[in-house]
Specification:
This protein has one helix at 19-22; strands spanning 28-34, 38-44, 54-63, 76-83, 88-95, 107-115, 124-132, 141-142, 148-150, 153-154, 158-159. It is mainly beta.
Length: 191
């Protein structure tokens, strides 16, 4: 089990561990079934989310049945940061591992680092999460009673607070070294 997400979003590590023995439990329950094979059990969010800082979310999944035949390649997870109007402020899509490797009963954790833009207003947002096939087709979600939820699950809203003055700027330019030549002539000065 990793303590934090990997640096390269194309990288992933898969461990086969006994989830019951590890007592893995999401902070927030959110039961939904994607297709007939993958069940979202819940998610973890940080206690505080700020404008201009990354939001790290962990989704807890259980594989109900083998995915071979359901997916020809690796399914992908996604998490979108939406405001109340449905505008997508940011997103992160993560690769899953190859479908034939998924077996019934497996517990899968997927991490997302969603950059909350520095120009996003502090207000209430929600995360929309789901699963899609390599061709881009989303997997339909149903709730515990079997009711259709659509092509994604909307998690409960949460507040994004004003950014901190100490928050690292996103897409910032850092000047590592700059030198002025002390004797360089300037416009209008004698050479």
């Amino acid at each position: 089990v990793l303590d934090e997400p990997l640096d390269d979003p194309a990288d992933f590590i898969a461990y086969r561990l006994d989830a019951d023995a590890l007592a893995l439990k999401p902070q927030h329950a959110a039961l939904a079934l994607f297709g007939d094979a993958v069940e979202l059990l819940g998610y973890d969010l940080p206690a505080e989310v700020r404008v201009g800082q990354p939001l790290t979310v962990t989704l807890h999944w259980r594989v109900r049945q083998p995915l071979a035949g359901t997916f020809d390649q690796a399914p992908k997870f996604f998490a979108h940061l939406l405001d109340a109007s449905g505008y997508r402020w940011a997103q992160d899509d993560g690769i899953g591992y190859l479908a034939p490797e998924w077996t019934g009963g497996e517990y899968v954790l997927s991490w997302f680092t969603i950059p909350v833009p520095p120009d996003a207003p502090p207000k209430t947002y929600r995360l929309q999460v789901g699963l899609y096939r390599p061709d881009g087709e989303r997997v339909i979600a149903r709730d515990a009673a079997g009711r259709w939820l659509g092509s994604a699950l909307d998690l409960p809203p949460f507040k994004v607070e004003e950014g901190s003055a100490n928050a690292p700027a996103q897409d910032a330019l850092t000047i590592a070294r700059y030198e002025l030549t002390p004797n360089a002539p300037s416009a209008g000065s004698p050479a």
